[in-house]
Structures are given as structure tokens and as C-alpha cells.
Amino acid sequence: MARTSFDIAVIGGGIAGLTAAHHAALAGVSVGHFIADGMPGGLVMNVGALDGWPTTGALGGAELAAGLLGRNEELGVSLVPSPIDSIEGAAAKTLSGPDGSWRAKQVIVATGASLRTLAAPGAERLFGRGVSQCAWCDGGLYRDAEVVVAGGGDAALSEAIHLAEFARSIMIVTRGEMFRARRSYVTRVAEDERFKLRWASEIVEVLGDKGVEGVRVRDNAAGSEEVVACSGLFVFVGLAPNAGLLPAGVGRDERGFVVTDPGFETTSPGVFAVGAVRSGYGGRLTQAVAEATTAAERAAVRCDD
Ligand SMILES: Cc1cc2nc3c(=O)[nH]c(=O)nc-3n(C[C@H](O)[C@H](O)[C@H](O)COP(=O)(O)OP(=O)(O)OC[C@H]3O[C@@H](n4cnc5c(N)ncnc54)[C@H](O)[C@@H]3O)c2cc1C
Q1: What is the pTM (predicted TM-score) of this model?
Q2: By CB count within 10 A, which of 1, 51, 224, 230 is most buried?
Q3: Residues of the domain holding 82
């Protein structure tokens, strides 16, 4: 019979969760790792070549996640292919999902974040018909085409750079007056005239009937609008935390990200939060790994109490 009680429960199958489960298992405690549908990888699942990951050669997100999952299995981590909807309790926690409930002494929440979508008319209707959030999945459909990317952070620029392998021109529309991205991405975009930039601007409508035919872009500084013809729109306009499983009383910042102490414990004792769900997370995989390692080691020590 499948086990229903663990020293540590880790929730979320992204790189933070996989790392937390790994280090908790290395510390010698029993670990249940809750991965929705058993599919690991999270936000980098479809990224074909990770930046900033210390390894030789190119490594994709799916490959990294699969490697960590396999290693965790060897270490004795119990994979539970279920999402968790709620966490309750004080000294021992009860975790509930659609198909059951489990007990754990300590909990590490690594549920990450979801890509925000555009509220503009047409964006939802044309999602999957020209509106996308994955250049690595859909970029090949836009060979010699004109595409638009919404956003100005690392994700927007790295995906735009990947689109440049296929597209004829890539317009980047950002609300800011500068990019908030790695300098190497900004330099790459600045050096290639196929990138057209629209600062202090936003997409106010996605145009098209059966597929994307263009976008209406508003220049917020000038107060003017233009229609830009394109067949693809890639949206990377920020992240929303996947924090709904935590009780309302657990501290969050004004954007809903989970507040922790410097050792990654939330305001609920015995519940840790690491990676993209956490307020103050820096956005790099290596930072997720560092946070998860620290939290796992702290939580494991508590299991002896
Ligand atoms: C397009 C893109 C490209 C990127 N490229 C890079 C890069 O090259 N290098 C780099 O350093 N960073 C990159 N990043 C940033 C990086 O992806 C994140 O910082 C990192 O993936 C965060 O990992 P995480 O495990 O905290 O969260 P996530 O990756 O979001 O993983 C969380 C997982 O938990 C699951 N989950 C959510 N709720 C529940 C629940 N209730 N129960 C169970 N499971 C749940 C989610 O489905 C998800 O699988 C990129 C980000 C994007 C969007």
C-alpha cells in the first residue's frame, strides 16, 4: 500500500522541488514528493537550452528535471503524482489533494508561479491559434514570419532570441522604458536589426479571426496607437504565484508571493517556501537550487525533534 505519512513533504515538481526532495533524502529522512500528474520540470520544462546553469554543454529543462527525478528515485524519494490543494495543522501537517490526504512533519512548498496572460481583447480567444507562451514549442511555426513578444524581462528576451532563429522580424513590446533582463540578452537584441522595440507600450487588442493577424499597440508615453501586422504573439508579462494551497493566514506580499524568513520558513512554523512562489526570489534556477537546499536541510534537522 502506498505510504501516506512522511517526515518531509515537498510540493511541486519544478527545479526547486526536485532539489528540495533531493537534499531532504540525502539528509536521511523520509520524503514524499507531490508532483501534479507526475510531470516534473515546471517553468523550464520546454526550455531547450538553459542559461546560467553550471554544466558543460547545452542542457534543456526537461533533461535536467528527468535527471533529478531519476536520482531522487534512487535515493528513496516517494513520488506522489498528485497536486496538493490545502495544507492544515500545526505540529503535524495534513496535506489534501483530489485523491487523498497525507501527513508530514515538515512541508516544503515549491509550487512556483504561472505565466500571466494578457487581459487584452482577443488574447484568450486566439490562445493556441497564434498566441503562445512557449517559443521553444511553437517557434518553428513562424519561419520567415513577423512575430510580436510582449514583456521585458529575462523570459521575454530569451524567448525572443530563440524566435530569431526562425522569424523575419520580432517586435518586443514592453511597458517599461528599459529591459529588466540579463545584459547578454539585452546586447543580443540591440545588435540585431530584426528586433524592433516599443518602449512604454502595451498590447491593447489582439486582432484576427481564425488566427492572429496583428496586434494593436498603445504607446503610453505618446498616447497614440498603431496596428502591427504579425502572425504570432508570445506573451511573457510576468508571473503569478501558485500559493493558493496555503492557508490565508500565511504571510504574503502585496503581489501574493509567500513571505519567508532568511531560512525560507513561512509565517506558519514547519512550512517552508522556496523558488518562484517566494517573495524575494531572484528568478534564476541556481537561486531556486540554493533556497531548496537550505530549506531541506533545515526541515530535516527539525524532523529529529
Ligand atoms: C520561458 C522561461 C525561460 C527561463 N529560462 C531560464 C534559464 O535559462 N535559466 C534560469 O536560470 N532561469 C530560467 N527561467 C526562470 C526559471 O524557470 C524559474 O526561476 C524556475 O523554474 C523556478 O522554479 P520553481 O521550481 O521554483 O517553480 P516552477 O518551475 O514554477 O515549478 C513549480 C511546479 O509546481 C507545480 N505546482 C503548482 N501548484 C501545485 C500544487 N498545488 N500541487 C503540486 N504541484 C504544484 C507547477 O505545476 C510546477 O510544475 C526561465 C523562465 C521562463 C518562464
Answers
A1: 0.96
A2: 230
A3: 5-114+239-302
